[in-house]
Design brief:
elongated; 6 strands; 34% helix; 3 helices; two-stranded antiparallel sheet; 32% strand; 107 residues; two-stranded parallel sheet
């Protein structure tokens, strides 16, 4: 006799053709306006770099910020059942820890 978990797994996989997948991590889930603004800026930088080969070599930018450390979920924690036609799940935020770290970025 099968266990209830094995029976449930068989129904999901064999009858409903579903499979267990992990969420795809994205740095942050953007609004349509934010996504459009990023595309516009990236397109502008690309056009400038095509016109002037030295443009990116002369560009220096930096940023510093205090950010919370994150305790990432394991793949097992973030996995979900999905059907063959449903899109892959996305995960935009992780559990925030109490520690902060200084983030410095220069390009």
């Amino acid at each position: 006799m099968r266990s209830p978990w094995a029976l449930c797994d068989a129904i999901l996989t064999d009858n409903l053709h579903m499979k267990r997948v992990c969420a795809k991590f994205v740095p942050r889930l953007l609004t349509d306006d934010q996504r459009e603004q990023r595309q516009t800026i990236a397109r502008d930088f690309f056009e400038r770099s095509c016109e002037d080969g030295q443009f990116l070599k002369n560009t220096v930018t930096g940023d510093e910020s205090w950010v919370y450390g994150y305790d990432p979920e394991t793949k097992q924690h973030s996995s979900q059942w999905k059907s063959p036609t449903s899109p892959r799940p996305k995960k935009g935020r992780q559990v925030r820890s109490k520690t902060k770290v200084m983030l410095l970025a220069f390009f």
